[in-house]
Amino acid sequence: MRVLIGWFALSTISWGASVDRYWDITPYNIQILVDCRLSETWNRQLEQSLPVYLKSRGRVSMGPLWKITIAQLPDDVAISNDSNLAVFSDKAIKSVRTDFDKLIVVSLCETTTGYTANAQEYDCLLETWSQIWTLETRNQAELQELAFDATLQAFSPMATFKVIRETPTKVEMSMKGSRLPRPEHTLPLLEEGQVFRPVLRRVDRTGQPVENGIQPVPWTYLSTNALDGETTTADIVSHTPIPMGVRQRGRVDQVAAFVRPGNRETRLKLYSRDEQQDPLAGFRVYQRDAGAEKGEFIGKTTDDGTIVVHHGETPIQVAFVQSSGQWIAKIPLVPGADGIIEAPVLDDSKRQEAEAKLVGIREQLIDYVAQRNIYASRARMKIKAKDFTEANRLIVMLENIPSATAFDQQHLRPSEQYITSKDPQVQKRITTLFSNTRDVLAQFLAPGLAQQLKRELAEANAAAQ
Fold first, then answer.
1. CATH of domain 158-259
2. DSSP per residue over 415-441, as a string?
3. Which of 60, 175, 196, 426 has fewest C-beta within 10 Å?
4. 267-345 in CATH: which number?
5. What is the pLDDT of residue 14?
6. Helix/strand/coil for 78
7. What domain of life does the UniProt record list for this protein's source (predicted)?
């Protein structure tokens, strides 16, 4: 009874987009703007019948979860560009954020093969537009239902979440409006295996986001478990073990937006994480279902650093990036939800260049070590044979072979100074490669061999006299 009383009281108040203590008993305040591009007669008919139909279907399907306001798309709103059905002025969109939780633009069009219903959502809490959802029909009588279906697809449920301290790989989620009464015939609020995108929303004392305060948690998703009463848990799927951070300064709303996989192509774009942000071509990419142990090789990135990632058995797919046999990135994504996923990753090309250069340097080192061993062996043979003149000549030849210090200055230092990376992690690997080579150098070109042979020669010469 308290929930019902609270809901009836709150349903008469316009709170705008916010996260507060009434989150779970507050309905979505949704404005639907309709743009009909049909025949004049059909437009006039829909202007009267479509708002009634959408409100009726909303009540049946969503119950008290939706509070709908329906109007025609204003004439002063720019129509359509590549990514939006309508383009609003900053003033207009600010007004929407003040009065509503969501704005859904529905566009009905006639085509050569029938009719299309396009819908796109603007979420006022996260201040972002969704992708455009398009449905088609040949039957004019189905157009109103098509408009509602498109609206339903564009709608993205919201939740707040918090990481479970005892199980940091899971979060507890609270769906907006989860404590509102839910008639049996309404659509389920949440299902197992659905995907949400976590967003950190840093706000001021009034609850409004600060500048650049709305930030999606990069390459991180929440996969829901079974609904348990008014809350549910979800598994964190991320590129890092602690994607949410250990401590948040100031007031931060932890919000999750529903991710609906679509049919559009999703490309993963890899670029270097340094200042140049160069596309990374030729990197091997493997794909696997979230939670799976094995994946499959799907190809190499093209010249522009991209590769298509297809749908799998689970909505969330995980791309693993390999360079020169080393795994350098793990990137979760939802194929069909985004057109392109950009990921700055480790550009290992400088390390590869250092490895290739050191292969040649080590071959030269092997040649010098072999020469030293040959001269030393022959010198000892001549000393034993009392051929002191030839033994001395071989020792002089051995002394002409570069010492470890000279070899370092001639071969290692110039290459080390030339092959560098601005990425600290890559530079650390390069430094380790040269350091390991110096250890080998000190071991096999150790000083003192020539002096030892000279002492052996002097002792043999003295004994012979």
1. 2.40.10.410
2. HHHHS--SSHHHHHHHHHHHHHHHHHH
3. 60
4. 2.60.40.1120
5. 42
6. strand
7. Bacteria
Neighbouring CB atoms inside 10 A of 152's CB total 17
What pLDDT does residue 313 have?
A: 93
User: Do the Cβ atoms of 460 and 379 come closer than 8 Å?
Assistant: no
| SS3 annotation, 290-312 | CCCCCCEEEEECCCCCEEECCCC
Q: Give the start-to-end residue ranges of the domains of the chain.
A: 2-154, 158-259, 267-345, 349-464
Q: For residue 37, what are the CA distances in angstroms to 32, 40, 143, 146?
A: 16, 8, 12, 15
Q: What pLDDT shows up at residue 81? A: 64
Whole-angstrom distance, CA of residue 117 vs CA of residue 85: 11
Residue 2's pLDDT is 35
Q: Which residue has the tokens 């250092």?
A: 354
Distance of CA 71 to the CA centre of its chain: 38
Q: Which token pair is 298?
A: 């799907």
CA-to-CA distance for 392 and 384, rounded, in angstroms? 13
- Tell whether the torsion through CA atoms of 388, 390, 391 and 397 is positive or negative: positive
| pLDDT confidence of residue 249 | 63
**CA torsion sign, 360 to 362 to 364 to 370?**
negative
Residues 222, 235: Cα–Cα separation, whole Å = 6
354 within 8 A of 434, measured Cβ to Cβ: yes
Per-residue model confidence (pLDDT) at position 4: 38
The residues pairing with 223 across neighbouring beta strands, listed in sequence order, are 195, 235
Instruction: Give the count of alpha carbons within 13 A of 430, CB side only.
Output: 25
Note whether 158-259 and 267-345 share their fold.
no
Taking alpha carbons only, the member of 125, 139, 222 closest to residue 176 is: 125
Q: Quick one: pLDDT at residue 460?
A: 87
Radius of gyration of the chain (CA): 34
Distances (CA, A) of 58 to 4, 26, 149, 329, 349: 19, 16, 10, 43, 55
| Positions in the chain whose pLDDT score sits under 50 | 1-15
User: What are the tokens at 68?
Assistant: 């709908």
Q: Which CATH class is domain 2-154?
A: alpha beta
Q: What pLDDT is attached to residue 12? A: 40
Instruction: Indicate yes or no: pTM above 0.70.
Output: yes
Tell me what pLDDT residue 64 has: 94
- What is the amino acid identity at position 31? Q
Place of tokens 């080390």: 416
